[in-house]
Amino acid sequence: MLAAPAAASALLNNAFRVIDQQAAGGIGTSAQAAIGSSTFVFIAIYAIHQLAAAGAAPLIGRATGAGDPEQRRRIVGSGMVFACGLGIAVALVGAVAAPAIATLLGLRGEAHQDAALFLQTLTTTGVLAAFFPLLDATFVAMGRTRTMMVLQVGAAVLNALLNPILIHDLGLGVVGAALATSISRSLGVLLGLWLLIRELGLGFRHLNTEEIPRIFRVGLPVGSNTLAYAFAYWALLHFTISPLGPEVNAALGIGFSALEGVSYPIFLGLSLAVSSLVSRRLGAGQPEEAVR
């Protein structure tokens, strides 16, 4: 019951890449190559966001199981401050280093220009996107997987509606694809934050840094694993795929989104559901139930 909505939420989160890739089909091969290659940059960015999300999730689950709402509010507040800092850091790096990142992907010519524009736009306008993994982790840790699924449905539908308008009608090209994603994700985050603040009774006093070291310590192994995975594909692109031309870059992006974009969310949904149950049972002082 927990895993199915969590998996659906993860599938919808991955759907952004598929939607952007499909919408960019009318622009040209270079745009397809740029968006497809950028997939692995955004997996790396997701790994950075996981430092807050994966670190906070088990701590929130434990506080929920222990029936300690004030401790849960402190952890969520620290997670929000941490996620905001990570989002700003990613935006600053993206604003300055997007062309260099496109070069590291092995892209050349028009594909390089499109990738740099796409990355720069998405990172600088998507600071709020850093909160999405944290919101997901928080609601799942509380046993509320359906909430994130609904938020993801709304964001994905809005993204699909905005893409043709911004890409083709307004003639923004890959910049329009990036803006469509940023706008839809940001609105989803704002709604999710409002729901969370209302449900938990969060106030400004709960925005603290005291739990960030503990969140970072718990989240670091998960984020490092995901980052290593992203860098493996990044190296594959630079040394093997990109030298074959933009058509091959585009094909890899499409194939990856279609296959890995389906299998990974299903496994992730199961793992999130189990993590939620285990952390809450441990928080409630029921280790035998956690084992079961």
Overall pLDDT level: 89
Helix percent band: over 70%
Number of strands: 0
Question: Number of helical segments?
Answer: 10
Task: Assign the structural class, choosing from mainly alpha, mainly beta, alpha/beta, alpha+beta, or little secondary structure.
Answer: mainly alpha
Order of helices and strands: HHHHHHHHHH
The profile of the biggest β sheet is: none
Q: Which percent range describes the beta-strand content? A: under 5%
| Basic shape | elongated
N- to C-terminal distance: 17 Å
The radius of gyration is 19 Å
Low-confidence parts, pLDDT < 50 over ≥5 residues? none
Give the tags:
mainly alpha, 0% strand
How is the secondary structure organized here?
Layout: H1 3-23, H2 29-65, H3 69-104, H4 109-125, H5 131-141, H6 145-169, H7 174-200, H8 212-241, H9 246-283, H10 287-291
Helix pairs in contact: 1-2, 1-6, 1-9, 2-3, 2-4, 2-5, 2-8, 2-9, 3-4, 3-8, 4-7, 5-7, 6-7
Describe the structure.
This protein has helices at residues 3-23, 29-65, 69-104, 109-125, 131-141, 145-169, 174-200, 212-241, 246-283, 287-291. By secondary structure, it is mostly helical. Helix 4 runs parallel beside helix 7 (174-200) and helix 6 (145-169) packs antiparallel against helix 7. The longest helix is centred in the last third of the chain and has 38 residues, at 246-283.
Question: How would you briefly describe this protein structure?
Answer:
By secondary structure, the protein is mainly α.
